[in-house]
Structure formats: C-alpha cells, structure tokens
Amino acid sequence: MSNRKILNFINGEYTEGTAGKFFDVINPADGSISAVVTEASTADVDRAVASARIALDGEWGQMSLTARLDLLDGIADGIMAHKQDFIDAEISDTGKPYGQVAHMEIPRGADQFRVFSKIAADVAESEIIETPLPDGGVAHNREFRKPKGVIAAICPWNLPLIMATWKAAPALAWGNSMVLKPSEETPSTAALLGMVMNEVGLPKGVFNVVHGFGENSAGGFLVAHPGVDAINFTGETRTGEAIMKSSAVGVRDVSLELGGKNPSIVFADCNFETAIEGIAKSCFFNCGQICLGTERIYVEQSIFDKFVAALKQAAEAMTIGPAVGLTHQKKILSYYRLAEQEGATVVTGGGIPIVDEEFVGGAWVQPTIWTGLPESARLVNEEVFGPCCHIQPFVREEEAIIMANDSSYGLAACVWSGDEGKAHRIAESLNVGVCWVNGWMVRDLRTAFGGVGMSGIGREGGIHSMEFHTELKNICTIMPSV
Ligand code: NAD
Ligand code: 6OH
C-alpha cells in the first residue's frame, strides 16, 4: 500500500475532494499501488474555476509581461530544483526507464516554461493601423492581444509532465489562469507542480489541478463548466469528439491534439543504418506510446527483406518500459491477437516478454513487427498506441503516397531517402501536420504542432499557442481632424 496521497491543488492549497472519494494509481512495472488520489467533485471543480477567474481579475491580470515571464523562468528552475521528486513520481506512475525520465522528460518538461517565456517576450505584438476617413481625418486602430481567460487543460498519460507543461507554459505565458486535469493514470507530476507554483510566488488561483476521470468525473465537470473560456485537450480521438461537443455549449474555443496512425516511407536510397535507428525509436520508444510514433512502414521492395531483418534485430535489442497500465496492456495484446487473426506474419514479438519475478504483475508487452497484411486490415488502420508496426512493400513512389495517405488520421509522418528532391516532393503530398525527412521527433517548440482529420483541430507551439491563448482586440479611435 502506497503512503503517497495526491490532492487537488485549488487556489494555492492542496485539498481533499469534498466527496471523500479516492482512487489508486498503479505502478505498471510491477502492479503495486503508486499513490492514492483524491477525486474532485463538481463542487471542487467549481471552486477551482472560480479561483482561476478571481486570479484573472486580481494581481495576475495586472502583472507586467516581464514580471509574468520572470515567474515562468522561475517555475522552470523550481521544477529542476525538485528534479528527483519529479523523476521518482513519474517513474512510480509510469514504470518508465530511469534515464528516459531523468535525462529527457523532466528537463524537457521544465524547459517548456523557459521556451514559452522567451516566445512570449519575442512576439509581444500590438500594431496600429491608420484608416483614412471621408472628412480627411483618420482613425487609429490599435490591435492587441488579451488573455483568453480561464483555460481548462486535459492531459493524457503518455508523457505526463511534458504534456502538463506543454499546456501550462503557454497558458500562463499569455496571461491566462487555468485548471489542469492530468490523466487519472499519471497524476503525480502535475500534482507536484502546485508546490513549485507556490514556491515561486505565482498568485493563488492562477494554476489549479483537479484529479479524477473523464465522463461524470473531474474531466467531464471541467469541460462542461460555463466558467471555462477555452479547452486545450490532448488524448484519444473519441474523447476529443465528446469534448468538442461540450465546448459547443457556450461557444468556447477548443484545441484538440488526438490520435494517429503515422506512416514512415523508406526508399532504397536512404542511409540504411540511420533509417533503422530512427525508425526503431519511432516505433518502440516509450513503449510506442507517443502520438508522433510510427505504426505503418512502407519500404521500397528492393530493400524490403533486408529492412525487415534489420528492424527485427533493432527491436529485439531494445529495452523498453511497460505499457502505462494493465488496461492498456490488454488493449495492445488484443491488437496483437487481431493481427494474427487477420493473417499477419509475426516477425518478432506478439506477446508478453519474460520478466523477473518481481515484475510479473506489470503491464509488459513485447516490441512487435508484422508483415503480410492487406492495407484494409484493421491493424493497419486503427491506432494501437503500443510498441508495434506493420511493414508493407511498395514499388512506385505514387503507390507509397496513396497507402500512407489512406488513413482517417493525419498527425505525423517520416520519409527516409538520400534524394532530397524526392523526399520533399513526398513530404509535401502527405496529409499530416508534421513530416520529418531523415529523422524523427526533432521538436522545435516554435513550430506548429497538430494534426489533420481525426488527429485533431488547431495547432500548438510558438505563435500558434499564442493565437489559441489570446483574443485579438481592436480599439478604433477616431482622431480629431485638424
Ligand atoms: P484519453 O482520451 O482516454 O484521456 C485523456 C484525458 O481525457 C484524461 O485526462 C481523461 O481523464 C480525460 N477524459 C476522458 N474522457 C473525458 C471526457 N468525457 N471529458 C473530459 N475529459 C475526459 O487518452 P489517453 O488514453 O490518456 O491517451 C492516449 C491517447 O492520446 C492516444 O490516442 C494518443 O494518440 C493521444 N495523444 C495524442 C497526442 C497529440 O498531441 N496528438 C499526444 C499524446 C497522446
Ligand atoms: C505526443 O505524444 C508527444 C509529443 C511530444 C512533444 O511535444 C515533445 O516535444 O516532447
């Protein structure tokens, strides 16, 4: 039994939910209880939204941009000052490998406050447009940005701190207040953020965290709350649809970063070793639980057998953590069974790995590669969100483009080729939000991030985050004619 108790963070204070309900978070490495979490009631969500509103009308709303951005830099430093607590919390909730969390996820999570502080400083924009009037005078239109208001941020479990700070940093950088609901599977690092906010002196109520589930729980209460001005959601497409319906009531803005079934196209003229290394990461890193990860690979026929053999070797050499939980493990394994029922050839994996005695209660799955399925197979069309991919040969580049684009999703893609012209031609014709050429997951936070089709609506990153988190306002002054 874990003695870690996770509370809501409302108006600068950690509090138990008024309904007195708690739920467990399970460590997926071994099935042990990672923490016990309070579940927010409607009354708790009401209070969180109300305190966010009051904060907007107080000191936070009056604060200069410089003072606000200094606070953001302070939050980044504050996370790093508690780095070990964040590492322990993240590993306990997710079972991820230590190095990945310590060297990538926590520093990157912290750094997003610094990056958005800098972006907000650099693009602080306001402009004057002069309009000639019939009487010979002019009007001055002063256009400037105001915070959108109270932002509800709903996060998934795959990169808990990174996702929470990816939502919180821009919301705060552009002067909003917010209520964050982390995934019920991974609430611990978001909960720690409250402590950091208090330490750096963020005014009370600017940043709130409520815990719980989706429908009929904290997530559902939050997105339906009339005091919320905009909803920033990352998660499954089906949840995105429900949230979009909620956001229609009261005509609130919504940003949806949803699922994917991302293709990777590999040409015979690629740098083979670089491609294998990059593609192995894109399929199996984080146990395949990355929205930008690859689940469909299209390989030029002439190198198909060599490619399949090399990716199999790379997959078998990789050390990955468990899936996020037993429910998700079950979902992944059901797709592993489906692949076989649909007639796939299992190149490697397809089940649960053998683990040490102490980890048998965990949510482990094997990195898995299939070949031989038709493009119409469910496995080739549905997002598994696990460490797996299907490899399909192609002969002509047009064929590869048609297969890659034959998806209702459109988040990310990769093209691997030594012919830059060809790679760009293909990258341009893929219906996705981001396409990497000869690489994967190079993420400049100033660039647009988001998908097309069932992968979502809206873009995050850089000025796109500013557009979502602000309202552009015009004050038009009719100048006295001289
Ligand atoms: P999920 O949709 O099940 O849950 C996400 C969050 O939404 C959780 O906090 C959950 O409690 C909450 N939620 C669920 N139902 C809700 C409702 N009706 N109202 C309000 N909140 C609700 O997603 P998940 O399983 O946590 O994450 C995995 C999914 O997220 C995958 O589909 C993956 O592709 C996607 N994802 C997308 C991106 C991206 O940027 N496009 C990034 C990461 C993950
Ligand atoms: C989605 O699952 C992953 C998004 C990752 C990032 O945005 C990042 O920059 O790490």
What can you tell me about this protein's structure?
There is one protein chain. This protein folds into two domains: 5-258 and 455-474, Aldehyde Dehydrogenase, Chain A, domain 1, CATH 3.40.605; 262-452, Aldehyde Dehydrogenase, Chain A, domain 2, CATH 3.40.309. The chain contains 16 helices and 21 strands. The termini are far apart. The protein has helices spanning 42-57, 59-62, 65-81, 83-94, 98-122, 160-173, 188-200, 218-224, 237-248, 272-284, 304-317, 326-341, 378-381, 397-405, 420-429, 462-469, and strands spanning 5-6, 8-10, 13-15, 22-26, 33-38, 126-132, 138-147, 150-154, 177-181, 207-209, 230-234, 253-257, 262-266, 294-300, 345-348, 368-371, 388-394, 412-416, 434-437, 456-457, 470-478. By secondary structure, it is α/β, with parallel strands linked by helices. Helix 3 packs antiparallel against helix 5. It has a seven-stranded mixed β-sheet with strand order 15-16-17-14-13-18-19, sandwiched between helices. A six-stranded mixed β-sheet has the order 10-9-8-11-12-20, sandwiched between helices. It has a three-stranded mixed β-sheet with strand order 1-5-4, covered by helices on one side. The chain binds nicotinamide-adenine-dinucleotide (NAD) and (2E,4E)-2-hydroxy-6-oxohexa-2,4-dienoic acid.
